[in-house]
Amino acid sequence: MTTESLITLLIVDDHPVVRDGLRGMFESAPGFRVLGEAASGPEGVARAAELDPDVVLMDLRMPGGSGVAAIRELTRRGARAKVLVLTTYDTDSDTLPAIEAGATGYLLKDAPRDELFTAVRAAAEGRTVLSPAVASRLVRAVRAPAPGNEPLSAREREVLALVAKGTANREIARELFISEATVKTHLTHLYAKLGVNDRAAAVAVAYDRGILG
């Protein structure tokens, strides 16, 4: 296989054993060449600029600097390398920021080696690669209404209008012929929809968005 057809890699992970394992795995397989390693996000950014790899295998949580920050910086610099996240974490707080920062793909470290090889080849070609668990999370995130964008119900609008007048929960319940507990439930729901935590903020946001007045 010619040098031109090799996919070059940079491995960024704070665990030496993981880096050694990945290097050995890729160097024993045809079609790959590991150019270097880094133990933190900032070091990964510097090494990527120095080595210009095709693909960066990026861990996310590293004491010396996070992978998400490194991905964001590589994207800002317009780096040629495609970033394939390889981590043990698949929570929303990890996956979504990494993808938003510019990662081409996201795999978990328990992925079979053949799946990892395929993912690296796909990433090198600019194709998105996601583990099934991560793909499911992204679909749920896309389908879920963003905080503050879900419309208020007619009853929630009535409650909010009375809150804007300074009406206490007990008086709101009396005026709308509902229980005080129901008023509190409506308030909880409209707070969530508006992305706020209290009555004053709800009123302010409602006026700002034209919901009130």
UniProtKB/TrEMBL annotation:
It holds the Pfam family GerE. GO terms for biological process: phosphorelay signal transduction system; regulation of DNA-templated transcription. Transmembrane segments: none annotated. One of its GO terms (molecular function) is DNA binding. Keywords: DNA-binding, Phosphoprotein, Transcription, Transcription regulation. It comes from the Bacteria. Residues 8-124 form the Response regulatory domain. This is Response regulator transcription factor. It comes from Streptomyces misionensis. The lineage of its organism: Bacteria, Bacillati, Actinomycetota, Actinomycetes, Kitasatosporales.
